[in-house]
Write a structure and sequence with these properties.
Shape: globular
Strand content: 25-35%
Oligomer: single chain
Distance between the termini: 25 Å
Radius of gyration: 20 Å
Helix content: 10-25%
Strand order of the largest sheet: 10-11-12-9-3-13
Structural class: alpha+beta
Largest sheet: 6 strands, mixed
Low-confidence stretches: 6-10
Length: 380
Amino acid sequence: MSDHNDSPGQDGPEIEIQTLPLDAWHRAHDGRMVEFAGYHMPVQYEGIMAEHLWVRESAGLFDVSHMGQLQLIGDNVAKALEALVPGDISALAPGRMRYSLLLSDNGGILDDLMITNAGDHLYLVVNGAVKQDDIAHLLDHLPDDITINYNEDAALLALQGPKAVDVLARLVPGVEALVFMQAAPFEWNGVPLGISRSGYTGEDGFEISLPGESAVAFADALCAHAEVKPIGLGARDSLRLEAGLPLYGHDLDPETTPIAADLGFAISKRRREEGGFPGAERILMEREQGAIQKRVGLMIEGRQPVREGAVVVDADGSDVGRVTSGGFAPSVGAPIAMAYVPTAMATPGTVIQLVQRGKVHQATVTAMPFIPHRYVRQPL
Protein backbone atom coordinates (compact mmCIF):
# COMPACT_ATOMS: atom_id res chain seq x y z
CA MET A 1 0.00 0.00 0.00
CA SER A 2 0.94 3.59 -0.34
CA ASP A 3 1.40 6.54 1.91
CA HIS A 4 0.54 10.21 1.91
CA ASN A 5 2.92 13.00 2.86
CA ASP A 6 0.79 15.83 4.19
CA SER A 7 2.56 18.71 5.90
CA PRO A 8 0.66 21.27 7.98
CA GLY A 9 -0.80 24.07 5.87
CA GLN A 10 0.65 27.55 6.33
CA ASP A 11 -2.76 29.17 6.55
CA GLY A 12 -4.52 26.55 8.67
CA PRO A 13 -4.35 25.92 12.40
CA GLU A 14 -0.98 24.78 13.66
CA ILE A 15 -0.84 21.00 13.90
CA GLU A 16 1.14 19.36 16.67
CA ILE A 17 3.72 17.04 15.17
CA GLN A 18 3.66 13.75 17.02
CA THR A 19 6.41 11.32 17.92
CA LEU A 20 6.54 7.58 17.27
CA PRO A 21 7.78 4.84 19.63
CA LEU A 22 11.17 4.73 17.84
CA ASP A 23 11.69 8.52 17.78
CA ALA A 24 14.67 8.53 20.17
CA TRP A 25 16.04 5.36 18.52
CA HIS A 26 16.11 7.06 15.11
CA ARG A 27 17.92 10.09 16.53
CA ALA A 28 20.42 7.84 18.35
CA HIS A 29 21.15 6.16 15.00
CA ASP A 30 21.80 9.55 13.33
CA GLY A 31 18.50 9.60 11.49
CA ARG A 32 17.83 12.96 9.83
CA MET A 33 14.32 13.74 11.02
CA VAL A 34 11.60 15.50 9.02
CA GLU A 35 7.88 16.06 9.42
CA PHE A 36 5.86 13.45 7.53
CA ALA A 37 2.17 12.62 7.79
CA GLY A 38 1.98 14.49 11.09
CA TYR A 39 4.97 12.75 12.70
CA HIS A 40 8.69 13.27 13.16
CA MET A 41 10.26 10.58 10.98
CA PRO A 42 13.71 9.75 9.57
CA VAL A 43 14.21 10.69 5.92
CA GLN A 44 17.70 9.16 5.76
CA TYR A 45 20.66 7.88 7.80
CA GLU A 46 23.74 7.45 5.62
CA GLY A 47 22.17 8.64 2.36
CA ILE A 48 19.23 7.74 0.14
CA MET A 49 21.30 6.15 -2.65
CA ALA A 50 23.29 3.89 -0.26
CA GLU A 51 20.18 2.91 1.71
CA HIS A 52 18.22 2.13 -1.45
CA LEU A 53 20.92 -0.17 -2.80
CA TRP A 54 21.37 -1.82 0.61
CA VAL A 55 17.71 -2.88 0.62
CA ARG A 56 18.05 -4.33 -2.89
CA GLU A 57 21.09 -6.38 -1.78
CA SER A 58 20.55 -7.17 1.91
CA ALA A 59 17.84 -6.10 4.40
CA GLY A 60 16.53 -2.71 5.52
CA LEU A 61 14.48 -1.84 8.59
CA PHE A 62 11.74 0.76 8.07
CA ASP A 63 9.64 2.38 10.79
CA VAL A 64 6.11 2.75 9.39
CA SER A 65 4.38 3.19 12.75
CA HIS A 66 2.63 6.31 11.44
CA MET A 67 0.31 4.05 9.44
CA GLY A 68 -3.11 3.39 10.95
CA GLN A 69 -3.68 -0.11 12.33
CA LEU A 70 -7.38 -0.88 12.72
CA GLN A 71 -9.43 -3.87 13.84
CA LEU A 72 -12.96 -4.40 12.55
CA ILE A 73 -14.97 -6.81 14.69
CA GLY A 74 -18.50 -8.10 14.30
CA ASP A 75 -20.79 -10.59 12.63
CA ASN A 76 -20.62 -10.45 8.84
CA VAL A 77 -17.86 -7.83 9.04
CA ALA A 78 -16.37 -8.88 5.68
CA LYS A 79 -19.71 -8.45 3.94
CA ALA A 80 -20.20 -5.09 5.60
CA LEU A 81 -16.79 -3.83 4.48
CA GLU A 82 -17.53 -4.90 0.90
CA ALA A 83 -20.03 -2.04 0.76
CA LEU A 84 -17.04 0.35 0.86
CA VAL A 85 -14.31 -1.47 -1.13
CA PRO A 86 -14.25 -3.40 -4.45
CA GLY A 87 -12.41 -6.48 -3.18
CA ASP A 88 -13.90 -9.93 -2.43
CA ILE A 89 -13.33 -9.72 1.31
CA SER A 90 -15.79 -12.54 2.08
CA ALA A 91 -13.54 -14.97 0.19
CA LEU A 92 -10.44 -13.99 2.15
CA ALA A 93 -9.30 -17.06 4.10
CA PRO A 94 -7.91 -16.72 7.63
CA GLY A 95 -4.28 -15.65 7.48
CA ARG A 96 -4.60 -14.15 3.99
CA MET A 97 -4.47 -10.48 3.08
CA ARG A 98 -5.57 -8.34 0.15
CA TYR A 99 -4.78 -4.90 -1.26
CA SER A 100 -7.93 -2.84 -1.67
CA LEU A 101 -9.30 0.67 -2.09
CA LEU A 102 -11.64 2.75 0.02
CA LEU A 103 -13.93 4.38 -2.54
CA SER A 104 -16.17 7.43 -2.59
CA ASP A 105 -19.68 7.35 -4.02
CA ASN A 106 -18.39 8.49 -7.43
CA GLY A 107 -15.64 5.84 -7.51
CA GLY A 108 -12.78 8.12 -6.44
CA ILE A 109 -10.04 6.65 -4.25
CA LEU A 110 -10.27 7.86 -0.65
CA ASP A 111 -7.35 5.65 0.41
CA ASP A 112 -5.59 2.42 -0.46
CA LEU A 113 -5.22 -0.15 2.26
CA MET A 114 -4.29 -3.70 3.22
CA ILE A 115 -6.99 -5.99 4.65
CA THR A 116 -6.09 -9.17 6.55
CA ASN A 117 -8.45 -11.89 7.76
CA ALA A 118 -7.09 -12.32 11.28
CA GLY A 119 -9.57 -15.06 12.14
CA ASP A 120 -11.92 -13.39 14.61
CA HIS A 121 -11.60 -9.91 13.06
CA LEU A 122 -10.32 -7.98 10.04
CA TYR A 123 -7.02 -6.16 10.46
CA LEU A 124 -6.60 -3.07 8.29
CA VAL A 125 -3.50 -0.98 7.63
CA VAL A 126 -4.37 2.46 6.23
CA ASN A 127 -2.29 5.50 5.30
CA GLY A 128 -1.02 7.65 8.16
CA ALA A 129 -2.06 11.09 6.93
CA VAL A 130 -5.66 10.10 6.20
CA LYS A 131 -6.23 7.51 8.92
CA GLN A 132 -8.54 9.75 10.92
CA ASP A 133 -10.60 10.45 7.78
CA ASP A 134 -10.72 6.70 7.11
CA ILE A 135 -11.91 5.96 10.64
CA ALA A 136 -14.62 8.63 10.34
CA HIS A 137 -15.70 7.17 6.98
CA LEU A 138 -15.88 3.66 8.41
CA LEU A 139 -17.85 4.88 11.44
CA ASP A 140 -20.30 6.68 9.16
CA HIS A 141 -20.85 3.83 6.74
CA LEU A 142 -20.44 0.53 8.60
CA PRO A 143 -23.35 -0.93 10.59
CA ASP A 144 -23.49 0.06 14.26
CA ASP A 145 -22.81 -3.51 15.38
CA ILE A 146 -19.34 -3.44 13.78
CA THR A 147 -16.69 -2.42 16.34
CA ILE A 148 -13.73 -0.36 15.08
CA ASN A 149 -10.59 -0.42 17.24
CA TYR A 150 -7.69 1.91 16.40
CA ASN A 151 -4.43 0.42 17.71
CA GLU A 152 -2.91 3.83 18.31
CA ASP A 153 -0.14 2.60 20.62
CA ALA A 154 1.08 -0.20 18.34
CA ALA A 155 4.27 0.08 16.28
CA LEU A 156 4.64 -1.17 12.72
CA LEU A 157 8.06 -2.12 11.35
CA ALA A 158 8.97 -3.37 7.88
CA LEU A 159 11.99 -5.55 7.19
CA GLN A 160 12.60 -5.60 3.43
CA GLY A 161 15.19 -7.11 1.16
CA PRO A 162 16.47 -10.51 -0.02
CA LYS A 163 18.11 -11.27 3.35
CA ALA A 164 15.10 -10.24 5.44
CA VAL A 165 13.75 -13.77 5.72
CA ASP A 166 17.03 -15.21 7.01
CA VAL A 167 17.39 -12.53 9.68
CA LEU A 168 13.79 -12.55 10.86
CA ALA A 169 13.69 -16.37 11.00
CA ARG A 170 16.64 -16.34 13.43
CA LEU A 171 14.58 -14.23 15.85
CA VAL A 172 11.15 -15.61 15.04
CA PRO A 173 11.35 -19.19 13.75
CA GLY A 174 8.48 -20.11 11.47
CA VAL A 175 8.14 -16.84 9.56
CA GLU A 176 9.97 -18.40 6.63
CA ALA A 177 6.89 -20.56 6.00
CA LEU A 178 4.79 -17.51 5.14
CA VAL A 179 4.44 -16.59 1.47
CA PHE A 180 3.53 -13.26 -0.10
CA MET A 181 0.26 -11.86 1.28
CA GLN A 182 0.07 -14.34 4.15
CA ALA A 183 0.00 -13.33 7.81
CA ALA A 184 0.07 -15.03 11.19
CA PRO A 185 0.59 -14.32 14.90
CA PHE A 186 4.03 -15.01 16.37
CA GLU A 187 5.87 -14.30 19.61
CA TRP A 188 9.34 -12.99 20.40
CA ASN A 189 10.62 -13.06 24.00
CA GLY A 190 7.04 -13.03 25.20
CA VAL A 191 6.07 -10.10 22.93
CA PRO A 192 3.08 -10.76 20.65
CA LEU A 193 3.85 -10.05 16.98
CA GLY A 194 1.52 -9.85 14.00
CA ILE A 195 3.68 -10.64 10.97
CA SER A 196 2.78 -10.55 7.28
CA ARG A 197 4.97 -11.30 4.29
CA SER A 198 4.35 -8.04 2.45
CA GLY A 199 5.82 -4.60 1.98
CA TYR A 200 6.14 -1.47 -0.13
CA THR A 201 9.50 -1.90 -1.85
CA GLY A 202 8.94 -4.68 -4.42
CA GLU A 203 11.39 -6.84 -2.48
CA ASP A 204 10.63 -9.91 -0.42
CA GLY A 205 10.05 -8.87 3.16
CA PHE A 206 7.81 -8.62 6.18
CA GLU A 207 5.71 -6.13 8.10
CA ILE A 208 5.65 -6.62 11.86
CA SER A 209 3.01 -5.18 14.17
CA LEU A 210 3.99 -5.11 17.84
CA PRO A 211 3.33 -3.18 21.05
CA GLY A 212 4.95 0.25 20.93
CA GLU A 213 6.83 -0.33 24.20
CA SER A 214 8.63 -3.31 22.62
CA ALA A 215 9.63 -1.56 19.38
CA VAL A 216 13.08 -0.37 20.53
CA ALA A 217 14.13 -3.80 21.80
CA PHE A 218 12.93 -5.51 18.61
CA ALA A 219 14.58 -2.93 16.34
CA ASP A 220 17.84 -3.39 18.27
CA ALA A 221 17.57 -7.17 17.93
CA LEU A 222 17.11 -6.88 14.16
CA CYS A 223 19.91 -4.37 13.69
CA ALA A 224 22.28 -6.54 15.74
CA HIS A 225 22.52 -8.65 12.57
CA ALA A 226 25.09 -7.42 10.07
CA GLU A 227 22.62 -7.78 7.19
CA VAL A 228 20.25 -5.14 8.60
CA LYS A 229 20.51 -1.35 8.51
CA PRO A 230 17.85 1.26 9.32
CA ILE A 231 16.40 2.89 6.21
CA GLY A 232 14.65 6.26 5.91
CA LEU A 233 11.68 7.63 4.03
CA GLY A 234 13.80 8.81 1.10
CA ALA A 235 14.86 5.31 0.08
CA ARG A 236 11.39 4.00 0.83
CA ASP A 237 10.06 6.40 -1.81
CA SER A 238 12.67 5.56 -4.45
CA LEU A 239 12.18 1.82 -3.86
CA ARG A 240 8.40 1.99 -4.21
CA LEU A 241 8.74 4.17 -7.33
CA GLU A 242 10.97 1.57 -8.98
CA ALA A 243 8.43 -1.08 -7.92
CA GLY A 244 5.68 0.89 -9.70
CA LEU A 245 3.67 1.25 -6.46
CA PRO A 246 1.50 4.38 -6.18
CA LEU A 247 1.77 6.86 -3.33
CA TYR A 248 -1.52 8.08 -1.90
CA GLY A 249 -1.93 11.86 -2.04
CA HIS A 250 0.37 11.99 -5.06
CA ASP A 251 -0.44 9.18 -7.53
CA LEU A 252 -3.86 8.51 -6.00
CA ASP A 253 -6.55 10.88 -4.72
CA PRO A 254 -10.35 11.23 -4.53
CA GLU A 255 -10.44 12.43 -8.16
CA THR A 256 -8.78 9.23 -9.39
CA THR A 257 -10.62 6.00 -10.15
CA PRO A 258 -9.10 2.50 -9.88
CA ILE A 259 -9.13 2.10 -13.67
CA ALA A 260 -7.38 5.40 -14.33
CA ALA A 261 -4.83 4.46 -11.65
CA ASP A 262 -4.20 1.10 -13.39
CA LEU A 263 -5.38 -0.71 -10.25
CA GLY A 264 -8.11 -2.74 -11.91
CA PHE A 265 -6.66 -5.89 -10.30
CA ALA A 266 -8.07 -4.63 -6.97
CA ILE A 267 -11.62 -5.22 -8.27
CA SER A 268 -12.24 -8.91 -7.60
CA LYS A 269 -13.96 -11.07 -10.22
CA ARG A 270 -17.11 -11.59 -8.15
CA ARG A 271 -17.39 -7.89 -7.45
CA ARG A 272 -16.96 -7.07 -11.14
CA GLU A 273 -19.89 -9.37 -11.88
CA GLU A 274 -22.10 -8.32 -8.98
CA GLY A 275 -21.16 -4.65 -8.50
CA GLY A 276 -22.46 -3.24 -5.23
CA PHE A 277 -19.41 -1.16 -4.32
CA PRO A 278 -19.21 2.66 -4.37
CA GLY A 279 -18.94 4.07 -7.88
CA ALA A 280 -19.45 0.62 -9.42
CA GLU A 281 -21.37 1.89 -12.44
CA ARG A 282 -18.64 4.38 -13.40
CA ILE A 283 -15.74 2.06 -12.60
CA LEU A 284 -17.16 -0.92 -14.49
CA MET A 285 -17.94 1.30 -17.49
CA GLU A 286 -14.34 2.60 -17.45
CA ARG A 287 -13.10 -0.98 -17.18
CA GLU A 288 -14.99 -1.85 -20.35
CA GLN A 289 -14.45 1.32 -22.35
CA GLY A 290 -11.26 2.73 -20.82
CA ALA A 291 -10.72 5.75 -18.59
CA ILE A 292 -9.96 9.17 -20.07
CA GLN A 293 -6.50 9.06 -18.51
CA LYS A 294 -4.25 6.31 -17.24
CA ARG A 295 -1.32 6.10 -14.81
CA VAL A 296 1.82 5.05 -16.67
CA GLY A 297 5.53 4.65 -16.04
CA LEU A 298 8.02 6.92 -17.80
CA MET A 299 11.70 6.59 -18.59
CA ILE A 300 13.13 10.11 -18.75
CA GLU A 301 15.76 10.95 -21.34
CA GLY A 302 19.00 12.33 -19.89
CA ARG A 303 20.05 12.45 -16.24
CA GLN A 304 17.82 15.20 -14.82
CA PRO A 305 14.81 13.91 -12.84
CA VAL A 306 11.34 15.23 -13.60
CA ARG A 307 9.35 15.74 -10.43
CA GLU A 308 5.71 15.75 -9.38
CA GLY A 309 3.86 18.68 -10.93
CA ALA A 310 5.56 18.61 -14.32
CA VAL A 311 3.09 18.84 -17.19
CA VAL A 312 2.52 16.36 -20.02
CA VAL A 313 2.00 18.21 -23.32
CA ASP A 314 0.76 17.03 -26.70
CA ALA A 315 2.19 17.83 -30.14
CA ASP A 316 0.47 21.25 -30.04
CA GLY A 317 1.98 22.08 -26.66
CA SER A 318 -1.35 21.78 -24.83
CA ASP A 319 -1.44 20.41 -21.29
CA VAL A 320 -2.87 16.89 -21.41
CA GLY A 321 -1.53 15.22 -18.28
CA ARG A 322 0.63 15.49 -15.17
CA VAL A 323 3.59 13.84 -13.50
CA THR A 324 2.62 12.56 -10.05
CA SER A 325 5.92 11.02 -8.87
CA GLY A 326 9.44 11.24 -10.19
CA GLY A 327 13.06 10.98 -9.25
CA PHE A 328 16.39 9.36 -9.99
CA ALA A 329 16.11 5.57 -9.68
CA PRO A 330 19.29 4.14 -8.12
CA SER A 331 18.78 0.55 -9.30
CA VAL A 332 17.62 1.58 -12.78
CA GLY A 333 20.46 4.09 -13.06
CA ALA A 334 18.27 6.73 -14.70
CA PRO A 335 15.44 9.14 -13.87
CA ILE A 336 11.95 7.63 -13.91
CA ALA A 337 8.45 8.90 -13.21
CA MET A 338 4.78 8.08 -13.00
CA ALA A 339 2.26 10.25 -14.83
CA TYR A 340 -1.37 10.43 -15.87
CA VAL A 341 -1.63 10.69 -19.64
CA PRO A 342 -4.53 10.38 -22.12
CA THR A 343 -5.28 6.70 -22.71
CA ALA A 344 -4.31 7.13 -26.37
CA MET A 345 -0.77 8.00 -25.20
CA ALA A 346 -0.51 5.17 -22.63
CA THR A 347 0.91 2.45 -24.87
CA PRO A 348 4.46 1.40 -23.87
CA GLY A 349 6.98 2.82 -26.30
CA THR A 350 5.06 6.06 -26.87
CA VAL A 351 7.38 9.07 -26.75
CA ILE A 352 5.92 12.07 -24.95
CA GLN A 353 7.05 15.51 -23.85
CA LEU A 354 7.10 16.88 -20.30
CA VAL A 355 7.52 20.50 -19.27
CA GLN A 356 9.16 21.33 -15.96
CA ARG A 357 9.97 24.94 -15.06
CA GLY A 358 9.84 25.91 -18.72
CA LYS A 359 12.24 23.18 -19.83
CA VAL A 360 11.07 20.42 -22.17
CA HIS A 361 12.02 16.80 -21.36
CA GLN A 362 11.55 13.74 -23.57
CA ALA A 363 10.12 10.61 -21.97
CA THR A 364 9.04 7.16 -23.12
CA VAL A 365 6.04 5.33 -21.70
CA THR A 366 7.16 2.03 -20.20
CA ALA A 367 5.56 -0.91 -18.44
CA MET A 368 5.82 -1.05 -14.67
CA PRO A 369 7.42 -2.17 -12.43
CA PHE A 370 10.74 -0.63 -13.42
CA ILE A 371 12.51 -3.29 -11.33
CA PRO A 372 10.89 -6.76 -11.22
CA HIS A 373 9.16 -7.64 -7.97
CA ARG A 374 10.85 -10.35 -5.94
CA TYR A 375 7.91 -11.56 -3.87
CA VAL A 376 7.99 -15.13 -2.55
CA ARG A 377 4.69 -16.53 -3.76
CA GLN A 378 2.78 -19.74 -3.08
CA PRO A 379 4.01 -22.46 -5.48
CA LEU A 380 1.43 -23.30 -8.13
